[in-house]
Amino acid sequence: MRLFALKGTEALGASIAAALGHPPDAHEERDFEDGEHKARPLVSVRGQAVYVVHALDGMAGASANDKLVKLLFFIAACRENGASSVTAIVPYLAYARKDRQTKSRDPVTTRYVAQLFEAVGTDCLITLEVHNFAAFQNAFRCRTLHLESRQLFVPVIRRRADGLPVTVFSPDGGGVKRAQLLKEALESEIGTEVGFGFMEKRRSRGVVSGDLFAGDVEDRVVFIVDDMISTGGTILRAASACRERGAKRVFALAAHGLFRAGIEPFVDSPDLEGVVVTDTVAAAGQQAGRFPGNMLEVVSCGPMIAETIRRLETGEPLSGLLGMED
């Protein structure tokens, strides 16, 4: 087995490697003056099962496009040099938000990205908490494994709730299923009923609307769950609505802490007591200083990804990690 972590995902790669007990294998990455780049393994991959870790979030000096192309080329190089299989571990999958046509002549980028991975010979793609799970599953023809963040968040909720009644809340209709599954996982863990709620949200040409609010939040600890936090506007809108309806405390949970420009109102809002994200992208840890006190908590998905790799290597069932029943 070979494990590579490309530039920008080294910290998560180290976490996976430590949990797996397999140090990252050596590779080279070079950037050229004209913007081109190359990456190659520095160890033999012939006959090996190769795992390549790379999150596709844009960052300073490397756009999502740059990182996607580098990953694709690296996968192709491994196949070119005799790897028996190549698994792409893409904890944050770029272009997953545009999964259907909503305007005339819209692209369907989720499907296009899937075709690119398939074209270079990817055998399996592992990701965490995609924007639209059904669209993701239907876009790919190679094997895919979708890891769930709820097993990482349940212990956090138990600790943060401090024995008070809890409501799990979706900030929009698209995340209702994600919130319901977290609610069920939490109820199974603590053995008591957990509240549920959601807000209506419609976005057209950059304008957000929708006033429908469902769920009991009064005198409860509310955990608003989403797949990502970019500028935080969607979650902040829901947090304010929950506070107006008497929520005692409000926390935000998201797998991907992107924390883009414009995050300041989210960070400074008195409506949010805490924010919990995973380390799928480097920004989650790098931006911690922008949050006051202990407002931001980052939980690692490295051990969960490592366990997925271990089970793939040993042939053990994956259903528990994927949030599925046997």
From TrEMBL:
Its EC number is 2.7.6.1. It catalyses: D-ribose 5-phosphate + ATP = 5-phospho-alpha-D-ribose 1-diphosphate + AMP + H(+). InterPro entries: Pribosyltran_N, PRTase-like, PRTase_dom, Rib-P_diPkinase. One of its GO terms (molecular function) is ribose phosphate diphosphokinase activity. Keywords: ATP-binding, Kinase, Nucleotide biosynthesis, Nucleotide-binding, Transferase. Residues 1-121 form the Ribose-phosphate pyrophosphokinase N-terminal domain. Transmembrane segments: none annotated. PANTHER family: RIBOSE-PHOSPHATE DIPHOSPHOKINASE FAMILY MEMBER, RIBOSE-PHOSPHATE PYROPHOSPHOKINASE 2. This is ribose-phosphate diphosphokinase. It comes from Aquibium pacificus. The lineage of its organism: Bacteria, Pseudomonadati, Pseudomonadota, Alphaproteobacteria, Hyphomicrobiales. The gene is prs.
